[in-house]
Write a structure and sequence with these properties.
With about 450 residues, the chain is mostly beta strands. Helices cover about 5% and strands about 45% of the residues. The chain is built from two helices and 34 strands. The strands form eight sheets. Strands 2, 3, 4, 7, 8, 9, 10, 11, 12 and 13 form a ten-stranded antiparallel β-sheet that branches. Strands 1, 14, 15, 18, 19, 20, 21 and 22 form an eight-stranded mixed β-sheet that branches. The chain has a four-stranded antiparallel β-sheet with strand order 23-24-25-34, with no helix packed on it.
């Protein structure tokens, strides 16, 4: 079915007028200014996504917040050369701060960047206010004209453009056409950005985007940044306020810098029982799952995750059952071996934009993301020195069966192999829960 989306925002811009630099701090040899104190007069168009509210005709109205920070990054994206701060709230403001002119050269194109502190598209709140606080991201560029005797640019204006789209989603039940009151959501697609490094490089991590609403709502605002151009298939996993689960897909050409409204029709998952056929998908004790042999089911998502492509929570062996309830449990080594005998085929890839392994079970499939693992020097899973390894290249999933002192069995897979292996119990792995079917 062709996606019908209505554009509600065509662009994002802010005009910054540069005034004379107020003063400079000399270098040690007194020859060249090292740091310029800069004052900018900034005005913001109606389409900037800083402080967000919905106006008439689906327009999004925005303004600066006092003390908003705009960083200036050098041409190769490796160094922040200064930070400018908004002196007042409103559609226009004055930005002041310092720029390190010594690290700049004439003709260099610098980037002015406003980004919310978290720089994270995961764990969204589903509201405009939440996006303004945690997912807002705009950039613009200026070309350096001179660095001495004063720092000037070839233009006294810069246009900041949004680096993500914002979509107001409404979800409908395919069988009843009723509007779904959403409590949690998970969205996956090829090229979807999950997080951005907070440093000058802005290195991006690809992955699923999820959110939990403080109060269930029939309208959900989601910020999406996608690095793949053109129409993409988006995969949705939704839970409503009555703990019903829905799944579905939608094709859409969401463009960074534009905002949309979209209605997505989803299929409600029904209850699985022991009479369900191997490969049937439904719900067991509050979680989406797929039926496997032996009157058992495997959850469609990791413990702590909100959709199949989401990594979820990492656990040490002694804490592997945390977050599991309603008779969901960590599988034994024997159950993992039996699981390997259940699927008819498996393949490595990124069908929904996240690397992992897809297992064919009956007429359906089960996806396990390659979430990697945390390496711990101690048994403390708050260890500040822990490091995340093998993300997007390997999957490590706990069993509940000890192997030897300080080690336990795990399911391990990568692009060319699947095996049951041992792991140090102090390390943190993901968990894919199992459940008996009644």
């Amino acid at each position: 079915m062709k996606v019908k989306t209505t554009k509600i925002l065509c662009g994002v811009l802010a005009m910054l007028a540069f005034t004379a630099c107020s003063s400079n701090i000399d270098d040690a040899d007194g020859n060249r200014p090292q740091v310029w104190h800069v004052t900018l007069q900034a005005s913001m168009g109606d389409e900037i996504t800083r402080a967000l509210s919905e106006g008439t005709g689906n327009a999004i109205i925005a303004s600066f917040a006092e003390n908003d920070e705009v960083v200036v990054v050098d041409a190769d994206g490796s160094t922040i050369v200064g930070t400018l701060k908004a002196q007042s709230a409103g559609a226009s403001t004055t930005l002041t701060g310092t720029l390190d002119a010594k690290s700049l050269i004439e003709g260099e194109v610098v980037t002015l960047r406003y980004r919310s502190a978290t720089a994270n598209y995961d764990s969204q709140a589903g509201t405009l206010a939440g996006i303004a606080a945690s997912q807002d991201y705009e950039e613009g560029t200026l070309t350096v004209k001179t660095t001495s005797p004063e720092l000037t640019f070839t233009s006294n204006h810069v246009t900041l453009r949004a680096k993500q789209s914002i979509t107001k989603f409404t979800f409908k039940d395919a069988s009843t056409n009723a509007i779904i009151s959403v409590k949690t959501f998970g969205i996956a697609a090829a090229g979807l950005v999950q997080s951005i490094a907070a440093d000058a490089t802005s290195t991006e991590t690809i992955g699923a985007v999820t959110g939990t609403l403080a109060s269930a709502s029939s309208e959900v605002y989601v910020a999406l940044r996608n690095n793949v151009s053109g129409k993409q298939q988006y995969f949705f996993t939704i839970k409503d306020d009555a703990d019903n689960w829905y799944k579905g897909t939608k094709w859409a050409p969401l463009v960074n810098g534009r905002n949309y409204t979209a209605t997505v029709t989803l299929t409600k998952l029904e209850t699985l029982t022991k009479s369900s056929a191997v490969g049937d998908i439904g719900v067991v004790s509050g979680l989406p799952a797929i039926a496997i042999s032996g009157n058992k089911a495997v959850a469609l998502m990791n413990a702590g995750a909100l959709c199949p492509e989401h990594y979820g929570t990492y656990y040490t062996f002694d804490k592997r059952a945390l977050g599991l309830s309603n008779d969901w449990y960590v599988p034994t080594q024997d159950e993992l071996v039996s699981f390997k005998d259940t699927y008819t085929s498996s393949s490595w890839g990124a069908p929904n934009g996240v690397n992992g392994r897809t297992f064919t079970i009956g007429s359906n499939t089960l996806f396990l993301p390659a979430a990697g693992y945390y390496d711990n020097d101690t048994a403390n899973d708050s260890d500040p020195n822990r490091m995340l390894f093998d993300v997007s290249t390997h999957g490590y999933y706990w069993s509940q069966t000890p192997y030897s002192d300080g080690m336990a069995y795990k399911l391990l897979f990568y692009n060319s192999n699947i095996q049951i292996y041992s792991e140090y119990t102090v390390n943190e792995l993901t968990v894919r829960p199992f459940h008996a079917l009644n």
